[in-house]
Design goal:
The protein has three helices and nine strands. It has 176 residues and is an alpha+beta fold. It has two domains: 98 residues, no CATH class; 44 residues. The protein has a five-stranded antiparallel sheet with strand order 2-1-9-8-7, with no helix packed on it. Strands 3-4 form a two-stranded antiparallel sheet. Strands 5-6 form a two-stranded antiparallel sheet.
Length: 176
């Protein structure tokens, strides 16, 4: 099965979808920009590092929209409060129980997606074992991105150089 990549275009910021990562030498955007696929990011059907930026810090999470999840939570609570006012405590707790059951069902049927800590690209159908989200790594990457945004060298970054002729999407050398 082909690995599908979903990422923000480095030039315009628009969401781009690459249906078959292995077949694409570049990751093109409708705006005309094309990011080169990072060399060595794939080994057969296995994703080794981010194909967009080359960062090896990838994690897995449920493939479900956060906005939809939060919307369901807010709607469930609003229905529970309304039923609690009209029916009483049994309506309130009944609506909360239905909301929890729906949330659990959606969690069980949602697939997984692999996400890059650095550029937040999403990869579906990516074979391999990746850790779950780690807040410590996330905070380190956020700090590194703030440093990079100021034009300074990024300490402890694990990426490699961009391909020859390709744009450097972020700093790629260790400071040490």
């Amino acid at each position: 099965m082909a690995i599908e990549a979903d990422f923000a275009c480095p030039a315009c910021g628009r969401e781009v979808l690459a249906a078959d990562l292995a077949a694409a030498a570049t990751l093109p955007c409708p705006c005309g920009a094309a990011a080169p696929r990072f060399p060595g990011s794939l080994e057969g059907d296995r994703l080794l590092r981010c194909a967009l930026c080359g960062d090896p810090r990838l994690y897995r999470q449920k493939d479900f929209s956060r906005r939809v999840g939060i919307g369901l939570l807010v709607a469930g609570f609003a229905v529970a409060v309304a039923l609690g006012v009209w029916i009483g405590p049994s309506g309130f707790f009944g609506a909360l129980l239905v909301s929890v059951a729906l949330d659990t069902l959606l969690w069980l049927i949602a697939g997984e997606v692999v996400v890059c800590h650095w550029c937040e690209a999403h990869f579906r159908e990516a074979a391999g074992t990746f850790p779950e989200f780690d807040l410590e790594v996330h905070d380190l990457v956020r700090y590194q991105r703030e440093v990079a945004a100021k034009g300074q060298r990024v300490p402890e970054h694990e990426g490699e150089a961009a391909p020859a002729g390709g744009p450097a999407l972020h700093p790629t050398r260790y400071d040490g």
